[in-house]
Write a structure and sequence with these properties.
alpha+beta; Arc Repressor Mutant, subunit A; 22% strand
Length: 81
């Protein structure tokens, strides 16, 4: 989610290489995020090769922002003064 939040879209290969995941593991994660409506997946061809790209949906961006806000709140509550 954080990788997708930082870019308009990323290819499957870019995500896989950035995250150091296997194809199967990343496919499972993407499928779960897609089923929850957090990620949009587009399939096309580039230079006669299949290209899968992923991007955050509005729902996904909102959920990620909420998650970041929660983490910030936890850090503020536990930060020594």
């Amino acid at each position: 989610m954080s990788s997708l939040a930082a870019a308009p879209e990323l290819s499957f290969t870019e995500l896989r290489d950035t995250l150091g995941m296997t194809d199967g593991n990343l496919t499972t994660h993407i499928r779960t995020l897609q089923e929850t409506g957090y990620v949009s997946v587009a399939k096309s061809f580039q230079n006669n090769r299949p290209l899968t790209t992923c991007s955050l949906t509005a729902k996904g961006r909102k959920a990620f922002t909420g998650y970041i806000n929660l983490l910030e709140q936890i850090v503020r509550q536990n930060k020594p003064e």
